[in-house]
Amino acid sequence: MKLIIKFFLLLFSICSFSQNSLKGKVRDSIGKPIVSANIVIKDTLNNIISYSISDANGYYEIPSFEYLGNGFLHVSHINFKNIIKELDLANSSNYTNLNFTLTKSDITSLNEIIITANRKSFSTKKDTLSYNTDAYKNESDRKIEDILKKLPGIEVNATSGEIKYKGKSIETVLLEGDDLFGYNYSLGTKNINVDIVEQVQAIENYSENPLLKGIENDDKVALTLKLKKSKIEFSGNIDLGAGLFDGKSEALDFNSNLLGITKNYKSFGTTAFNSIGINHSPFDYFGFNINLEQIKEDEFLAEKIIPETRFNKILKDDRLNINNQYFGNYNAIFRINDRLKIKTNLYYVNDEIKNTQLYRNEYIINNDIFSTEDKSIIDKEPIQYRGDIEIKYNASETSLLTYKFRIKKEFIDTQSLINTNNISYDSELNSEDFYIRQSLLYTKKLSDKKALQLSIFQSSNVIPQTFKINPSVIDLNVNFYDVQQVKNKKNYVKLHSSYLGVASSGDKYTFSFGGMLEKNELNSEILSLSEIENDITENGSNNVDYSKQKIYQTSTYDINIGKFEFSPEISFRYFFQSIEDRVTNTIYEKNNIIINPAINFRYSITKSSFLNASVDYDQNGIAQNYIFQNPVLLNNRVLESNIPSLELQKATSYGLFYFKNDMYNQLQLNFNINYETTKGNFFTNSLINSNITSIQYFYLNQNNDNLSFSSSISKYLPLVKSTVKLISNFSVSRYKNIVNESGLRDNTGQFFKSDLFFKSAFKSFFNFENIFSYSKSTFKNEDSNRFINESINNVFKVMLKPTKVWYVMLSSDYLIPNLKNNSENYMFLDATIRYRPKNKNFDFSFSGKNLLNEKRFQQTQISDFSTNIFTTNILPIYFLFNVSYSF
Questions:
Q1: Cα 435 from Cα 492, distance rounded (Å)
Q2: Helix, strand, or coil (residue 299)
Q3: What is the pLDDT averaged over residues 729-747?
Q4: pLDDT tens digits for range 802-829
Q5: Euclidean distance between CA atoms 609 and 668, whole angstroms
Q6: How does strand 368-396 pair with strand 340-350?
Q7: Buried b (16+ CB within 10 A) or exposed e, 414-453
């Protein structure tokens, strides 16, 4: 615009005055031509008469201007001092070759200006909500899971590591857009350092298969971790802690992670060892809580008939889990070329878990009163090797071939010394688990709105188990011991095809057709053997095959009308089952035609809130876990058997869910209510005495009902700069059982738990956090007898940051496991002091755990027919010095 104005002024001057001209060169102090210097002629009133700009040779020329008075010539350049020369333009012939030499301008230093502002804690873009981790982080946060627990709208299950966003389980956690961990994403969230993550993004309408984006029903959620730019190529950390337990034994904690990201390669590896009760792996060998991957693959896995020893979970693992765990994991994605990508996941776990447990049971059954007592010293050693590989090949821009393969080998050796009613037993359980699975999926994108998928899946799972106990609990003769052998095998094959599309109205639909074949083989044998005479007595065996076959067709249609979304679904199945018992030479078979309808309704109230309702009716076979008729010895007390049945279970469920996540007002609400009624189930018939418990499962066409309600309310209170959160869960179940030939009894169980969370966010050296938990369980039988268990737990933390390099955290954990017995109360004190030098990559910390040195934990629980007193030992007091280095 300035050039245009100057151009018109030049034309005006040419038309108004007599013609004249100027020309010359502009150079610097060493004679080098100056390019783009401005040469401007102005009159005495500072009006522009004419101008020119020097070329690459420093030459300029101002041709034919009409002005005869006095004026000024301005020569300027951004890097040089300006020159102003007075001219007598009436004698322009004196200026036909006017040259200038410019000198460098003086450098002027400006005072430093610092602009500070609080970075937004979140941002939204289409279907993605991005959390800036620095806005939620404090000195107590070490791993990214610590941050996820604080993010509005996100819930983390502390036991399994499962993550939910807006009440929905996420599919996976992506690392810079790539699915490195699969369903075992807790590997990343529990081990990736929070310091290297810049953002956590919650992605709605996520599609793992890029060819189906916008075609399939995008009712999926994923999280992605965006790393800081300085950490993209190569980063990691090493944590090394060493100390002493109260008994002077060594307390060790070592954990190292390595992250590498390049254009064609992405990897994350971790190596860990500890003896302080921490489980770095996604596999829980202490409490055997199943993770998300195991939930997803449950239908492919065989069952362990003899259950592994499970430990009480009312306290956290790092209070009870006396372990020596080695864990190694390596995850990598290789981009071979634009079409081929390979992902590998390798796992190794080796642990030794020691625990001492005491169970006292007091039974009141049919006016019969008796008690039992079992003290067990347990040493369990699990080992697992596992490898996964996934190959994705884009044959073209519209087709994708995905192959997945997994192989797992697991060994668990559990040795126990058991004292039962003053009888000492020595037992050993050896369990193996060999699992192999593979799948092939072909996706063809037919058009922008249509796609076809074809897949084949095959798996095999073999679980042999041997349980030895001495002396015998079956044959009471002296010098006899029992050996229970069980082998359970499952083979599974499934063919599946899907046609997906988007209608002209924008509605989405899916038509699926497929077939499935499953075969279970179970063999068991109880032997009583004499140590002296080599006598062998067979006390029962099973040799059973169970198979089921399905041919199915499923249709879903998603209808969107403004803020409303309807998703009806209907499935038709031909279902065939058979049981062949080779011991009794009997065969049972059953055919069924099944129709399973379902509908889901969603109403988007605002951009931040919605209401969801669902109804689902399902018929399915449940015989696979109840196929053996003759008893199997599970431990020193329990024999289990079944009366098999091929009848179907019919389940109807209703759900209503409300969610609100108002990020701008920092308010989160969700309410969830579910009711499920099932007709047809396997019930228990228990015969209990002071020495043995015999449990038999049998099928009845009776109802079981369950009503559950959960709510969560979270709000940031600006007045006190704190966040308050209330989480509540309530459930009511009606179930039936038979105890010591009592007849079928109706029972009701109620469970309530509420957690009140309060955390300050003061901009000072002092902050605190408090979690108060109350739980109550109530059992009621048909005689109107009520059995109530109540407990409270309060965890209070004080966080101090007296300087930028020092951090102190003090924590108290107060627990009353049963309010009726206030003498059973426990106080755990922990402390941590951390020093982190400014602008350094390392820090030092000193911590103490269980400073009051609680040595045992006891809890009393009451059920509809017994009072159970459980006692276990606790990790003793220990002190740990830790060095952490990040790079």
A1: 11
A2: helix
A3: 83
A4: 998 999 999 999 999 888 877 778 999 9
A5: 9
A6: antiparallel
A7: bebebebeeeebebebbbebbbebebebbbbbeeeeebeb
- Nearest partner of 868 among 512, 447, 374, judged by Cα: 374
Distance CA 460, CA 50 (A): 90
Q: Which residues contact 740 (CB under 8 A, 6 or more apart)?
A: 365, 366, 368, 686, 687, 688
Q: What gap in Å lies between CA 773 and CA 754, rounded to an integer?
A: 6
The whole-angstrom separation of Cα 818 and Cα 106 is 81
Q: Residue 614 corresponds to which tokens in the numbers above?
A: 């669902």
- Token match 């009997």: residue? 586
Which CA distances in Å does 523 have to 3, 610, 623? 95, 51, 16
Residues 6+ apart with CB under 8 A from 650: 617, 618, 619, 678, 679, 680
Do residues 682 and 646 make contact, with C-beta atoms less than 8 angstroms apart? no
Q: How many CB atoms lie within 10 A of CB 518?
A: 20
Buried b (16+ CB within 10 A) or exposed e, 286-320: beeeebbbbeebeebbbebbbeebebbebbebbbb
Each residue of 159-218: pLDDT tens digit?
A: 777 888 888 889 889 988 888 888 888 888 888 888 888 889 998 888 888 899 888 877
Structure-block tokens of residue 660: 């609100």
DSSP state of 105: P
Q: Considering the entire predicted model, what is its pTM?
A: 0.81
* Calpha distance 101→766 (Å, rounded): 65
Tokens of 743: 């007849």
